[in-house]
Every structure is written in structure tokens, then in C-alpha cells.
């Protein structure tokens, strides 16, 4: 079928603009128009990336106000694709935060390495539905390979199954669904078939500083956001081993590898052997921290987490895969499959691994391809280098801020720094001035009762020069 005969040409600019979907354009001119559009999009994207260094890191109030141009009713008829792209680039691009650059330190946000970004472009052109092997052999296979690489990088047991999802929230959900299945099956209950009404109770244990995405996942699974036992934590936010309650075969114990504020790791080596012996299911939220396992220098923090039953992590944080990419890993393949698979006559089951048997979705983007490309490009040493370099940058921030007289609240073990500039009001005012200054972007938090600025160095793109420039801006605004 030619592009013109699909009515596609209507939306493309050509020398002979059509007036209806049935206009008699040749397929060749429609293809030329598409090629020109994609080249324009690539040019705009490259200009955007090249301009990141010179623009304010946070979107300005003016650029956000400019977004209003994009409002309005849905036009009654088509708009030329070039005009749509122009609107996006003219008004959308300036109203983004420069997360793809080297000086965005908010939340825990990685950039996108060139290979991951290029793969994302190609994946969009492929437009694959990565549900099943039959819908996309390339997506299915590349995802399978990438998951094995992730397992190896994180030092997890052979045979561990995985799922590529949108982020750590969905990874926590997927892994905890497997946990729910396994523990209730053991208790003689088929939770997928019969739901939770009348099911034997499960106990879920979390640390006091559990990430809210774990609680959200528990809520979605009917296990309750509040129906958890919260274990007190120490001065870095780590679960206190001496405060652990009784564990048994009806317990899901949620550990954390990388506290979103401090970067601290729960003491897995001290907790996991006894938890395993008691028959508890150990789940690890390691959205970014688990990747420390890829570095010979930082691996020590992840010791013991390999004894868990399931793990959640993100590709879009430390591996810099670009949004969005999360990964769930489950030691017991059958538990994950039982929780996630669906069957229908039209969904052929072959010999190959079926991606949708392990994830909440059926139709899905082929984000495993981007994961494959990003990891293939980094290799083991590249992944270790990102962990080491960004953690080194975090130490430099901490040292520079301390030297300027400000209080660093956490032990900087990986890539997270919490700094207080004095009273809560002074700290919040400093953050507001820093965001307005535009050199870099940091957000705020309240951690263990203290108001702080968070610095999360997660992007491959951050250089020493970015750190020095940002440090100088932080000290300048703090002294104003
Ligand atoms: C420890 C931890 N868990 C879970 C999440 C949620 O990750 P996502 O936003 O990818 O769902 C985060 C996000 O920063 C996190 O730091």
C-alpha cells in the first residue's frame, strides 16, 4: 500500500498540498515529505541538546506561560505535520527542564546516553508492539538479552526472570505481585483467580523511610498502603536490624538499596540470611542504588541484596537509558509468570519467551531495545564509570558546601547529598534563588525533621566543570 493511498499525504507538506485524503499524490512525494519532516525533527532535537549548556536549567516562568499557545479546541481538520512539529519545538522545547544536560540534580534523574537516545529514535520508527514474540521478535529477543545483562551487572542469581516496565513504581508492583502469588499459593490460596477477599493474611514489613512507590504498589495489590509494619531506621535512614519484627513464611519484607534522600542501603547482609531461613519473601527497592553493584569500588554497599527474592530498579536513573525504563527481577520465574500472564486464543504461545507474560501490560513500547542499546554501549566498565564518576561528583559537592560553612546532613555514600543552609526558611529561600538563577536545578526535602536541599548526581552528562559551576552558584545564592 502506498503512503498516499492511506491518506497519509494529507498531513504532510508537499509541493502539491492535498485538499482531501483522496488527493492523487504519488507515494514518492509523500515519502519525501516524511523524510524531510523526520530530518527536521532530528535537527530540532540536536539543536535542543546543543543549546542545553547555554540555557537556564529550569524552565522559566515565561517559557511555561508560552505553553498556553498549545491550548485550544481540537481543530476540525488536519494540521500539516511540519506545523505541528514547529509548535512543539517553538513552545514545548523551552518549557522543558534541561534534564538531558549535566546540571539537573533534582529527584533522581538520569540523562540519556547517545546510544540509548539513538535507539529510542529507531524504536519509535519501528513502532513495534513488544507484547509477544510474534508481534516483535526483535523487541522480544533484545529485551531478553538486556534483562540477562542487568541480572549480571547487579550480581543476582542465575535463572532470575525479569520484566521491563515503565519505572521502579511498576517494577515494585510487578515484583510484589509475584511475592503475593508465591506466599498465598504456599498458603493454599489462588490470589489471581479468587482475589484477596477471604485470603489468608500476609504481613508486609517496610523500613520507616520506605519510598512511597512501594506503598503505592502495595495499595494497588490490595495489600494496603497503611497495613504495613514499619521498622524504625537509624540516623542515615537504614532499617534497624535490632528492631525487626518476627518473620515467617507469610511475610513480605521490603528492603531498600539506596534511600531517595541519603542514598543509604539497608543492612541486607545482616538481615537476609535469617529472613530467608524464616521463609519470608525479601523484596528490594533498588531504584538507583542497586546499580552500585556494577562498580568494584561501590559494590560493598549492595552486599547481601543478592539473597533476596525480588528486586526493582530503574534504567532511567543511573544507567541513563532515558525515559521511561524500569526493571523488575524475580528469582522464581513461575511466580512472576503466574502473577502476570494472560491467555487468549488469539495470543499465540510459541517456544520463545513471551514478554507480556512477565509485565502488567499487554501492548507496550519496546523499551527493552533502548535498555539493550544503552547497556551494550556502556559495557561493564561504562556502567561502573557512571556510578563512580557521579558518586565522586556528589562527594565534591559535599566537600565544597561544607568548606563554605554549610551543613551536609547525610553520609555521602553514593550520589545523593542533603545540605542545609541554616533554618528551614533560609534553606528554602536558597533553593528558590538557585532555581531562579538557572545554573543548575535542585529540589527540597524534609528528612528526619530537617529541611534540606537535595543534590542527586545521576546523569552521565555531568562533568567536573558542571559541578564547579553549580557549586559556585549554590554558594553565591546562599550568601545573598
Ligand atoms: C528508592 C526509590 N524507589 C522508587 C522510586 C520510583 O521510581 P520511578 O519514578 O521510576 O517509578 C524512586 C524514585 O526516585 C526511588 O528513589
What would you note in describing this structure?
The chain has 480 residues and is an alpha/beta fold. It has helices at 27-50, 61-66, 81-92, 114-126, 137-153, 168-186, 191-194, 212-220, 268-277, 333-340, 367-403, 424-437, 464-479; strands at 161-165, 203-207, 228-231, 251-256, 281-285, 310-314, 326-330, 407-408, 416-420, 443-447, 450-456. Strands 1-7-6-5-4-2-3 form a seven-stranded mixed β-sheet, sandwiched between helices. A four-stranded antiparallel β-sheet has the order 8-9-11-10. The chain is globular. Residues 1-7 and 15-24 have low confidence and may be disordered. The chain binds pyridoxal-5'-phosphate.
Question: Which characteristics define this entry?
Answer:
480 residues; alpha/beta; 7-stranded mixed sheet; 4-stranded antiparallel sheet; binds pyridoxal-5'-phosphate
Number of helices: 13
Ligand list: pyridoxal-5'-phosphate
**Total beta-strand segments:** 11
Mean pLDDT: 95
Helix content: 25-40%
Shape: globular
Structural class: alpha/beta
In short:
This protein is an alpha/beta fold.
Write the layout of secondary structure elements.
Layout: H1 27-50, H2 61-66, H3 81-92, H4 114-126, H5 137-153, E1 161-165, H6 168-186, H7 191-194, E2 203-207, H8 212-220, E3 228-231, E4 251-256, H9 268-277, E5 281-285, E6 310-314, E7 326-330, H10 333-340, H11 367-403, E8 407-408, E9 416-420, H12 424-437, E10 443-447, E11 450-456, H13 464-479
Parallel strand pairs: 2-3, 2-4, 4-5, 5-6
Antiparallel strand pairs: 1-7, 6-7, 8-9, 9-11, 10-11
Helix pairs in contact: 1-3, 4-11, 5-11, 6-8, 6-10, 11-13, 12-13
This protein binds pyridoxal-5'-phosphate.
